[in-house]
Amino acid sequence: MELRQLEYFVAVARTGSFTRAAAATHTSQPNISAQVAGLEREWGTRLFERIGRTVALTDAGNAALPHARAALAAAESARLASAEVAQVITGTLAVGMVDGCTITPLFDSFAAFRRAHPGVRVSLGEDESPALADRVRRGDLDVALTGSAGVPPAGLEALTIISERVVAVVPHGHRLAARHHIGPDDLDGETLIGLPPGAGIRTAFDDGCTRPVDVEATSPDAVAALARGGVGVGILSESIAAEHLATLHGSPIDGVDRPALLCLVWRPRPSPAVAAFVELAVSAFGLD
């Protein structure tokens, strides 16, 4: 049995005529008759009753028709999937990441994509989190690693990489270093160091605490360095604070309850290139 035979069978059933089916499938009437006859011999049953110049499905034909249509649909889906993979080889992929990003799995994903699809033109750039989400929505970027608070950016597909509490970090020996929790009043008189507005960590902090940030730094490492140098109390996420345990102590802040998120975001109905990149990111971040 061949797909062409199923196509001819479905065409005859749809048109009610071997002649009209031949015209619809751009073949000759003797060829389509021979192909359907071959299908009948293979299946051991008649599929059509010949009634003058027209034909009608037999009971066996009626039973086989939906399965023949499903087989043709599955073959078309396979063809489209194969075509989509071929598009990845010659497509483009614009990736964005938060300023100062040093997250190794993202770079691992980038490298793995380049190895798997060397024909794709790939770009990588940095920006602030709100701008990254907007650029993905506009189509300027295909996919981006961005921060948010509580929930991923609206209107986009998202893969949440990290969801964690916001903490205040101070050097060992600071008056707040022994605290398991820090209340808003404990921050009075302290200089607060945070990321720019719109960053996920900053948004989570601002949503839960009315104390303003006094010093803004462009990257988490800069916040940590300033806190370590005695400039003030840094506002970071738990995992980033954990990277500096040798010199800094981190404590949760009462009232700051929304988690800081780090998400990979892309538009709905992603291109084959984006789908391939996301699949590699899932593996690189250990989320599979």
UniProtKB/TrEMBL annotation:
Q: Which UniProt keywords apply?
A: Activator, DNA-binding, Transcription, Transcription regulation
The Gene Ontology terms for molecular function here are: DNA binding; DNA-binding transcription factor activity
Q: Which InterPro entries match?
A: LysR_HTH_N, LysR_subst-bd, WH-like_DNA-bd_sf, WH_DNA-bd_sf
Is DNA-binding one of the keywords?
A: yes
According to the entry, every stretch annotated as the HTH lysR-type domain falls at: 1-58
GO CC terms in record? protein-DNA complex
> Keyword Ribonucleoprotein, does the record have it?
no
- What family is this protein classified in? Belongs to the LysR transcriptional regulatory family.
Designated name of the protein = LysR family transcriptional regulator
Q: Which organism is it from?
A: Gordonia desulfuricans
